[in-house]
Design brief:
It is built from no helices and 7 strands. The protein has 86 residues and is mainly beta. The chain has one domain.
């Protein structure tokens, strides 16, 4: 199984602390090599703590049971765009 970082964003808890959240897509190749299952999206803090998505903007820090909310427009980045020279 391979996990690929697809995006990063910031989220804030009720006390105002900001967390850097990483979004990964994991895929499992099939045994016959003809295609795998649908990718599974997982979330982790930059420090490695696991995060569960509750809805589009709310997430739960699993170890501490703290709810965090995605900050609007704090998209940190994703895979770089490919530029093709002509």
């Amino acid at each position: 199984m391979a996990a690929v970082l697809v995006s990063q964003f910031h989220a804030r808890d009720a006390e105002g602390r900001v967390y850097s959240v990483h979004e990964f897509q994991e895929s499992t190749p099939s045994v016959d090599g003809l295609g795998g299952t649908e990718p599974v999206t997982t979330y982790k803090l930059a420090i490695g703590d696991r995060v569960r998505k509750l809805d589009d903007n709310q997430f739960l820090l699993i170890q501490s049971d703290i709810t965090i909310v995605r900050e609007p427009d704090t998209y940190v980045g994703s895979l770089p765009e490919t530029t093709v020279a002509s």
